[in-house]
Amino acid sequence: MSMTPEKDFGTPASPSTQMVNLEIDGFQVIAPAGTSVMRAAASIGIDIPKLCATDSIEPFGSCRLCVVEIKGGRGMPASCTTPIAEGMVVTTQNKKLADVRRGVMELYISDHPLDCLTCAANGDCELQDMAGAVGLREVRYNPAGENHLRAVKDESNPYFTFDPSKCIVCSRCVRACEETQGTFALTIDGRGFDSKVSPSQNQPFMDSECVSCGACVQACPTATLMEKSVIDHGVPEHAIVTTCAYCGVGCSFRAEMKGSQVIRMVPHKDGKANHGHSCVKGRFAFGYATHKDRITKPMIRKSIKDHWQEVSWEEAINYAASELKRIQAEHGKDAIGGITSSRCTNEETYLVQKLIRAGFGNNNVDTCARVCHSPTGYGLKQTFGESSGTQNFDSVMKADVIMVIGANPTDGHPVFGSLMKKRLRQGAKLIVVDPREIDLVRNSPHVKADYHLKLRPSTNVAIINAIAHVVVTENFVDEEFVKFRCDVGSFNKWRNFIADTRHAPEATESITGVPAADIRAAARLYAGAKNGAIYYGLGVTEHSQGSTMVIGIANLAMATGNLGREGVGVNPLRGQNNVQGSCDMGSFPHEYPGYRHVSDKATRELFEKDWGVKLQPEPGLRIPNMFDAASDGSFLGLYVEGEDIAQSDPDIQHVHHALRSMECVIVQDLFLNETAKFAHVFLPGSSFLEKNGTFTNAERRISPVRKVMPPLAGHEDWEITQMLSNALGYPMNYSHPSEIMDEIARLTPTFTGVSFEKIDQLGSIQWPCNEHAPQGTPTMHEETFMRDNGKGLFMLTEFVPTHEKVTQKFPLILTTGRILSQYNVGAQTRRTENNVWHAEDLLEIHPHDAEDRGINDRDWIGIKSRAGETVLRAKISERVQPGVVYTTFHFPESGANVITTDNSDWATNCPEYKVTAVQVAKVSHTSEWQQNYHAFSERQMELLAKE
Amino acid sequence: MHIEKLVSMANDIADFFNAESDKEIAAEGVKKHIQRSWDPRMRKAIVKYYQDSGEGLSPLAADAVKKLMEMG
């Protein structure tokens, strides 16, 4: 809870295992070879003064404050750039060194405002600390001399200011932008006295390439780069480590507080997913938690045409329970269900599925992973035996060839994207498989894809088969790996299948649009690598063959032996913060926690015994099945926690019809989101800052979520679920989420070693964590796969064209994706300053297609599919290929899902968001759906207002 | 349930298992997938549809639904 700053060792740790002995100020020190003298000293508590050094970036040796003397050596070397050596004898303090340091500091301070008492960094300023450390008592230089004190402050960024009058030109910000973030937006402009930090070409921050990750602010030792929240509210007084609630990277943050007010979110250096880095969302976009739109009182209404009535918690819960009971009494126990979300903690998700299975008495539970990574769960379970990625994020630093398929890490998973870029700058090769030119292809400094396989949307399986065909027919198969680690019978069958000439790159070229030579070259590059790693995203899963593609990726990795060690693997980049966790927790209708099928008698009996209730052996309804059943009149009650199905799900008019058809929709959320506009009960939920629990990120890392402020509506979400369960007559009596985790551990073989106590002790844990792996499992399948026989299974992956055909009427393919500054349905980020970067969804269209239709940049254009029509502004872009248009889906009024269809993955019903045949044309007004949406939405806001 | 959608879903599942040259194994795969992932009301609806006409079901999907029916 204290505000103890994180220890800064000055330079990064050395990965060497060879140890070196030396003496510093008379003390014996042992440190890994390659460690700097500065870091070695810091490791025994000797803090050598420094300004330009910090341990998140490589040493620079510029400030000369960290000079030391080395016995037998010449001069006074900078300790940050001097590596330790065996037998070295170092002196860090003597009069000569002190004089030099005071002289250096005197020069710095001679050109620095002496406004410490009113400075925003007062008490949190390394320059101030160093002035004290070196004993600076006077500045002899004439203050009227030439200086930078009148330099103009740049306040263009919504979250931080840049005050060059306070800059000491240590270059920490420049280096952080390069090394940590990999954006290279900053530089030092000018020479000598004229040297200054310059965003891009001496532009304001907002006009530069800056992505507002905050790395520069974090690195700045003065008040030059400073959070506006600190300027407004002062330096925080305590900090609590918690986990970000945005993407699947799951960054660890210190919530730095004043009382119960979050002053800033600072990336936690010890966070194993992010190592002290952040993106604009996690670092700055937390204001939604206290936004005026938050609803903090429970509400009920009979009909969605009625005004909302604020009621007590007891009344709201009792009303919800009575309605659910009434529906079950009238229409059967299977007439209700629930949806949990990847925005919920593990404990909350576990409790929702328990409520539904044990309290509702059916298996009609699903989660938003249905619409994103359910094919990952299916495909990897079938082939590897476990529904998860195989590596930790750090593994990428040992990859020699990286294949990114249908993912956009720099936008969707920015902190991992930065790590990947670091590895690429070190020389790893890159293959991008994507219909669109993502930043990694050629728009990231010093990063360029070796191959961009710019395929036609919906042809993923044809591509992966073609790559595998090259592997098999050009003798790239890792025969040893296959022989000892895989099911050889399935491999032989697959080998015959994939070797057929119909899978050859030359045969699939007409399907994919990718030149055969490029596919062959990319396949050789991946298969020939010492370590080849595959990273993929929703561009793989959100297809009618999403599961087939995941299986195809798994086949390829097994065939080439790229599994079971660092630097390789199959790595799904999960969308939301807790996609992995929500799936792990048994929120699919056919699986208990730990991915065990509900029909499995032994597992079912385990839960029946623990929960004290008989459970159903049949799978329940998936989300799209719930909508169909609602439209048919056999599904009438729904409890939705944390998911906005009325915006996020495909063919939204069908979803809205289903919601209107239900008799009781209970929404538990922060805001009156799109789904809540169709609801009869609103239960105000809590943000990630208001509750305890855990999130599990894309690398299976279970990280702590800790309450830093009281829930605005009075209850953490798990408590609300518990109240509903008790009102329904199924008792729950947890007093803390740690008890829920204890139950999960008790009932789930891959979690038996997990507890809040151990998470606090280790910081985070990668499951499986059990008697075989008490500290967790960074790399999966090292010795055997998790299937019953321990062998990886090859499966046949025939390419099957999508039903969504391009025709004369619908000649273009619409595909969708994300942008850095907004997050999914935007409920959180739209309520922050992030809107300055992305205030509306646009339709990217290739210049040729635009010209054919007389469309100019920023024109309003109608987009029509077989499902519906909406209107967006045009963005002419060569990032998309001719015949393909692209949009994001962060604003409800955009109606992106009015256009998407109900086509879905064959195995999991994950929607085919990435492929919709459309026509576009210039228009002058919004679509009929948008007009209806606007009217409905306005009316719902009126009904929210007190009568 | 919308039977057209269930037919389409069954056919999509069959399309995947169709890669298997042994059609008995393929039909068993389709059946097992439906059995393990479809809610009973959906299974009941597709079986009834198969009994009524089965029109639109691909041969492999039809074989799988027949197996479902025989399971009872």
Automatic annotation (TrEMBL), chain A:
Domain 4Fe-4S His(Cys)3-ligated-type, residue spans: 96-135
NCBIfam families under this entry?
Fdh-alpha
Among Pfam families, the record links this protein to: Fer2_4 (PF13510), Fer4_7 (PF12838), Molybdop_Fe4S4 (PF04879), Molybdopterin (PF00384), Molydop_binding (PF01568), NADH-G_4Fe-4S_3 (PF10588)
Q: Which PROSITE patterns match?
A: 2FE2S_FER_2 (PS51085), 4FE4S_FER_1 (PS00198), 4FE4S_FER_2 (PS51379), 4FE4S_HC3 (PS51839), 4FE4S_MOW_BIS_MGD (PS51669), MOLYBDOPTERIN_PROK_3 (PS00932)
- Give the family this protein belongs to, as stated in its UniProt record: In the C-terminal section; belongs to the prokaryotic molybdopterin-containing oxidoreductase family. Belongs to the complex I 75 kDa subunit family.
Q: Which CDD domains match?
A: fer2, MopB_CT_Fdh-Nap-like, MopB_Formate-Dh-H
Gene Ontology BP annotations: formate metabolic process; respiratory electron transport chain
Alphabetical keyword list: 2Fe-2S, 4Fe-4S, Iron, Iron-sulfur, Metal-binding, Oxidoreductase, Repeat
Q: What is this protein called?
A: Formate dehydrogenase, alpha subunit, archaeal-type
On the tree of life, the source organism's domain of life is Bacteria
Q: Which residues form the 4Fe-4S ferredoxin-type domain?
A: 158-189, 202-230
* GO terms for cellular component: membrane; oxidoreductase complex
Gene source species: Methyloglobulus morosus KoM1
- State whether keyword Iron applies: yes
TrEMBL record, chain B:
Which terms in the Gene Ontology molecular function aspect does this entry carry?
oxidoreductase activity
Q: Which Pfam families match?
A: FdsD
Key words, A-Z: Oxidoreductase
The record's listing under InterPro entries reads: Formate_DH_dsu
Is Oxidoreductase found in the keyword set? yes
Decide whether keyword Oxidoreductase is in the record. yes
Entry's EC annotation:
1.2.1.2
Protein name as annotated: Formate dehydrogenase delta subunit
- Tell me the organism: Methyloglobulus morosus KoM1
